[in-house]
Amino acid sequence: MTAADQLIIFDNVSKFYGEILGVNRVNLQIAPGITSLVGPNGAGKSTLMNLMTGLLRPTRGSITLLGIPTDQPERLFRKVGYCTQFDSFPRGVTGREFINSFLMVHGYDRRRANQLSHLALERVNLVDAADRKVAGYSKGMRQRIRLAQSIAHEPAVLILDEPLNGLDPMVRAETIALFRKLAAEGLHLIISSHILHEVDMMSDRVVLLNNGYIVAEGDIHGVRDEMEEHPMQILIRCDQPAKLAAYVFGQKHVVEARLHEDRGGLFVKTKDADRFYLMLNRAVAEGEVNLESVAPVDDDLSAVYQYLIGTTGGSA
Amino acid sequence: MSSAIDVAHADAEKLPLNWSLWLRQVGTIFRLEIQKNFLSRRSTLIYLIAFLPLFPLVAFAFVTPNTNEFRDFNQYSITYSIIYNGLILRTLVFFGSAWIFMNLFRGEIVDRSLHYYFLSAVRREVLVVGKYVSGLVTTVVLFTTTTVVAMLLLYFPHFYSQSVRYFTEGRGLGQLLTYAGITILACIGYGAFFLVVGLFIRNPIIPALLLYGWEWLNFLLPPVLKKISVIHYLNSLVPVPLSEGPFAVIADPTPAYIAIPSMVLVTILVLVLAAFRIRHMEIRYGSD
Fold first, then answer.
1. Are A88 and A163 found together in one domain?
2. Which residue of A245, B75, B98, B207 is 20 to 30 Å from B33, comparing CA positions?
3. What is the DSSP string of A231-293?
4. Are B4 and A86 in contact (CB < 8 Å)?
5. A69 close to B (CB below 8 A)
6. Are A196 and A285 in a shared domain?
7. Any idea what the CATH number is for the domain that residue A270 is in?
8. Rounded mean pLDDT of A286-311?
9. Considering only CB atoms, which chain A residues are within 8 Å of B15?
10. How many Å apart are CA B232 and CA B227, to the nearest integer?
């Protein structure tokens, strides 16, 4: 098995809907773990997911998932599950029939399909409602039954388009825990979401999209570190913030030092966070200040999103 | 390698890509579609349409029109041929097939549920075959029943003993089977056409009406053009041919040994086209 057989690879992929750009010149390699696609509406998140699953075909370039081209659904969907945003179902089916029927289309016999669908229903906590018609489900239950359908055949790659939409906080937390568990088992999870703090919590890496282009990708802290045009802001709570301000102000990498409104802390903007932390350690060692806490203020996805895309993104 | 990937690979090995898997998948798709065709709310309408020609014949069983044609048993084969041609073949089978086969894919696009099939580990060509076979079985069951029951309803209520002799000793049974065979052939041919139309065209009613017009005008067309139609081959097989009127352009009927294989061959070609189309099809419900 080659390295490509364990990666999701986008090779110079573009998708146009006539004259309209879907995504352009996407080059990506996604390793196992949780990868989140983040961006405003129309950024190209769903397009990227639909391309990954062969529901759309690239205008240019090629995509392989674990070495399988996306135009071979008979091979691809043995390893891939996709929970789309389409909130629609075949008419008149119960939750269990819905999952069973598509497992049988996969090729499983009735007995194995029953086993797998029951396991999937258990995983999304929907066993009690499994024999009710899907048409009578709440939005959250419909979301969960789609999730169950996408994981029922035990895929190695799970693609989830806004999977937390419509879920109440309790189920949301359970679902995130399920994603983490699946990622720990070695799955690729590709998740799109508007809810940045949840993405921040669960993702191993993020892909930020805007207007069909990838604007940043990688581990969120790594992405933040690379944004030289936006110095990192750090809040230092200490006993003598004014003295600390004077101490740091002479450093070349510090571009701003500002006292907190309550006069109990100092905001520092630095182009080189590592050097700043070294300097701060020195100040403490020399007895200049006594620290209470040190925390980056904009080293999260929301800040990166705001800097790169220019809006504050979504929230729960 | 991780356990989850191991599981997926193990399952992949359990389900080898071969004919036995494809046949099983065709069977599953067939069962799902047959349930939809026969047991869903939508199927009420198709039952109504399928059995519509029987209502006047049931009425005829109780009340005999006071005209010579209906008093003469020998005229019944011509009467049935007229009913079959005008009401069953050209109207019921045509529009019934259009409704059922177009909905196989177009209906799922409208319902936004086609992607579930596309997200299954199934060759899209297998999907075409499964859906086509389900549509074919549905139309054949419904319309052949109508063809047979209509004939029996015409003959038996008024001339029971003569009808028994006609169907057991005379030409009745042969004609009945021939009409049923023509109905099956019509379902095969029209079915493939409407399936592919439903895949290519957003509003398939327009091409259906165009084909309907073409089929009705077939009697006016020169012999070469007559052959670019379904109805020409079906008419060639009818056991009691009807006059097509004074303006009709006469052409030799195509013999059954050419008509039947030709229809089947064209159907296969149309299904290959459908398979090619679906292989390259994208899911974009918004634009559909």
1. yes
2. B207
3. PEEEEEEES-HHHHHHHHHT-TTEEEEEE-TTSSEEEEEES-HHHHHHHHHHHHHTTS--EEE
4. no
5. no
6. no
7. 3.30.70
8. 76
9. 78, 106-108
10. 6
Structure tokens at A276: 């700043």
How big is the A-B interface in CB pairs under 8 Å? 129
Look up the domain containing A164 and give its range: 3-224
B75 inside domain: yes
CB of A120 closer than 8 Å to CB of A152: yes
What is the pairing mode between strands A232-238 and A213-218?
unpaired
Task: State how far the Cα of A231 lies from the Cα of A228, in Å rounded to an integer.
Answer: 6
In a domain, A188, yes or no: yes
Quickly state the pLDDT bin for A306 (edges 50, 70, 90). confident
Angular region, A12: left φ>0, alpha ψ -120 to 50, beta rest = left
Q: A202 and A165, same structural domain?
A: yes
A244 and A276 in a single domain? The answer is yes
Secondary structure element (H or E) that encloses residue A37, with its range = strand A33-38
pTM beyond 0.80: yes
Closest CA to B232 of B36, B65, B247, B217: B217
User: Hey, is the C-beta of A293 within 8 angstroms of any chain B C-beta?
Assistant: no
Q: What is the mean predicted confidence (pLDDT) over A144-165? A: 93
Amino acid at A13: V
CA distance A94 to A134: 5
Residues A272 and A257 reside in one and the same domain: yes
CA atoms within 13 A on the CB side of B155: 25
Minimal Cα–Cα distance from A69 to chain B, Å?
13
pLDDT (tens digit per residue) in A265-278: 999 988 888 888 88
Neighbouring CB atoms inside 10 A of A281's CB total 12
CA distance B136 to chain A (A): 20
Q: Report ipTM (2 d.p.).
A: 0.80
Indicate whether A80 and A210 sit together in one domain: yes
CB B202 within 8 A of CB B102: no
Tell me phi and psi for residue A296, to 5 degrees: -65, 135
- Which two three-digit tokens encode residue A133? 């018609």
- What does the alpha-carbon distance between residue B37 and residue B138 come to, in Å, rounded to a whole number? 7
Domain count of chain A?
A: 2
* A311 Cα distance to chain centroid: 18
Does some domain include residue B22?
no
Q: Indicate the pairing of strand A80-83 with strand A232-238.
A: unpaired
Mean pLDDT on B242-246: 77
User: Number of structural domains, chain B?
Assistant: 1
